[in-house]
Amino acid sequence: MRRQILLSICIRFFIYFTHWLVLAYLPLLLKGYGLSDMQIGMAIGLFSLSSMALMLPLGLFSDIFSPKRTMLCGALLYGGYFAALLTARSFAWILAAVCVGGLGSAALVVVSESLYLKHFGQIQRSRRVATYQLSTYLGFGLGPLVGGLVVQMSSPTLLFSLAMAGAGAIFCLSLFLVDYEPIVFSFKEYSGDILGFKPLLLLACLFVLGTHFGVEQTSFSLLLRDKFGLFPRQIGMVFACMGLWMALAVPLVGRFHDKRRSVFLFFLGGMAFSAVFQVLTPLAGGIWSLVVIRLLHNLGDTVALLELGVLVALLFPSGRLGGNSGLLYGARTLATFLAAVVSGSLNREWGYGASFMGSGLFVLCFVVGSFAFIGLSATRRQAVGWQESGQ
């Protein structure tokens, strides 16, 4: 079991390392190719949209066929995406490349997590989810750090070559995963899983949470460069600080969570905390105040994403985690796509800070509305573990 857990953690690290190795600098590279802010937003958004289109089908496919083989196919598509970016310079070819990358990302992100939760998500749930997410945050931090050094010291060719090597490592490691027994597809059972108060609330929360990811993927590196004058290496260091901070925080949050009963309220609280500092991001007066604001923002993200992983393992049967995770990730990715496209328009008209402020206010309004909606019903308060509801 420990060998499989370690293998799953390593694969997850490489998925996010290669993803952020490229994505943190893709807007800068596309800007250098002569693309407009609107085109950059469309390209980043299309990556999310192509991921979203197949997340549910691939999740279902992994349940009824083979999670392991689905991941192997995803790793091949991921490698093809980075190979295409080696030569793509026109807007049309870049759109084609990100479509391929989105398909590979869908297979890897959804199926790797659902396979891990199928095997290991029912015992010591919070700690195992926290350990798994630690590898995600290390990849999120170290990928941009390495990418920044490569972009500043070399050409984009080396960046995409390293990403191809990362996709190859994912493929090779996935060969040693233990597969999960397939199930017989039942539309009635899947619909029964999702058509309940808590699953639907989780779906709505995840959609709203996904909007701020679209803003960050489209605008953060450009904000660091244009407002704060950072070079790629320095941008990588900012990402590294955020990723390592989240990696340090998530085990502590997981241990603290084990002493609390209300997962949903912590999820909404993490979203609210994250949103407050999303709003404050464009108001930072200098790079150090920006780093502090973003670290506090990431602390909220850490709480929300940990509770998300726990809720997925808690609410859905292990055998159908692939399809249900695909639906949830699809909703989040659709929100990321929409926010990325909207961010492109906002960036063009109002500057890179406007999209951060808008997304933070949107999430805050949703959280306030959710607490009001839950608080007005004793049944809903009991469903999410609001302790005063039993009195």
Describe the fold and architecture.
- This protein has a single domain (2-390), classed as Growth Hormone, Chain: A.
- It has 15 helices and no strands.
- By secondary structure, the chain is mostly helical.
How many DSSP-defined strands? 0
Q: Quickly give the structural class.
A: mainly alpha
Shape: globular
What is the N-to-C succession of helices and strands? Answer: HHHHHHHHHHHHHHH
Low-confidence stretches: none
Strand content: under 5%
CATH topology: Growth Hormone, Chain: A
CATH class: Mainly Alpha
Multimeric organization: single chain
Number of helices: 15
Annotation keywords:
single chain, 391 residues, mainly alpha, Growth Hormone, Chain: A
Tell me briefly what this model is.
By secondary structure, this protein is mostly helical.
SSE map:
Elements: H1 2-23, H2 26-32, H3 37-64, H4 67-85, H5 91-120, H6 125-153, H7 156-174, H8 187-194, H9 197-226, H10 232-257, H11 263-280, H12 287-315, H13 321-350, H14 352-375, H15 378-383
Helix pairs in contact: 1-5, 1-6, 1-7, 2-3, 3-4, 3-5, 3-13, 4-5, 4-7, 5-13, 6-10, 6-12, 9-11, 9-12, 9-13, 9-14, 10-12, 11-12, 11-14, 13-14
